[in-house]
Amino acid sequence: MRSVVFAIILIVIALVTGALVAHSSPVRMLLYLGLLVIFLVTFMKTEWGLYILIFSMLLSPEIVVGDTARSMLSRGVTLRLEDLLLVVIGLSWLARNAVLKDIGLFLKTPLNKPIFAYVVACVLATGFGVMAGRVELKTGALYVLKYFEYFIVFFMMVNHVRNRAEVKRFVLFLFLTAFIVAVIGMFQIPSGERISAPFEGPVGEPNTLGGYLLFIGMTAAGMAIKIKDARMRLLLLFFILCLVPPFFFTQSRSSYLALIPACISLAFMTERRVVILGLVSVAMILSPLYLPSIVKQRILYTFNQAQEPDQMIIGDLRLDTSTSARLQSWKDVLRDFQKHPFLGHGVTGYAFVDAQFPRVLAETGLLGLFAFFYLLYSVFRLALHQLRDTEEPYCRGLITGFIAGFVGLMVHAIGVNTFIIVRIMEPFWFFVGIITVLPMLKQEEPAPAPAPIPRGRQILTAARPFPVRPRLS
To answer: Which of 56, 147, 218, 303 to pair with 281, CA 20 to 30 A apart?
Structure first.
């Protein structure tokens, strides 16, 4: 039966390849060929496909593939190379599961129900939005699929990881990718512009890079605090120091704000929390003395921008246009969601909102907002539970750093669409998958030491290096 299925797959691949050759340019053919190779590589060994996906997270370009005029998003539907890779790797994973039966499809976890609830809320809201004419079908479907592609990463990790050695390899590659991104970011600093992740297209997204560096940096910081190996701790500290310059030069105020609760959360989870909290407090108080001038100017810009028409005034403070626009979007959503309070306007059915929580409310209503908060709460509760059940320093450090980074991302989401940005959510759900199964993973046992050879036999072995074949009777 399996040979028949495999033969059918080969025939389908051959037919599709022939059709593509007849109607595609050489560049597209190279892209299709590369995706096919990745499909086959992942089919043979899922771990290799996941490594490819990790490196593509921040190191792949974007492609504008559609128009969203009806949904008033003021931009096209953007797909990145990792979106295509994720689809190809996911399909290969499903095909491997169907043919070889060696992995599970959806392992039962505490997050299955909240993920399903959020998926259902988004699909229902968008479906009703399409029927009411608020959502264009193609655009809404593409965005809904983009919302859910991160869950594929989660289930692949949960079903694939079998031991802690694999976890350490995945974490190493995640950190290596962040290190490459940080180095590229440092080369952008002399330009004087706000830095963003590589291959962002003509308009960069510094807030995205800020949130990504914050999350990865806090995860590494938690490991540096808990790990006992001095050499590994020094490497982690060096890695964190490499992330600091590009983080500050993103000039992302949402990321700066998120850094404060993230550091406080990390301090609370240390053994010497009073000392660490004191050091964090002192560092924040003295920050005007050592922060780069461009960072201080960016923060002060919130209140000292030259007068513009759309600025909001709160008391004696006049806020800059960017902050005012975000606050105005919150105000508009709280007013407009009442038109469709339970299921919202549908995904892409409302004007663009650059803030996660009001966007969820506008697009999916109270039902979607409840499902979204249920999902975030379930992730946080799961991480705390795993932290209590884990004793190994490496695992405790990983979970501790994840929790601190997660707290930072929730604050980051006040002014950014954090939880639907592919470059933040793919590494986030990678770590969620790891943490979900971490306490259940077995530690690879070291190879047993060979038994000592008696002295007489050592001499005999040295004199006769090749094994003696047994005599034939």
So the answer is: 303
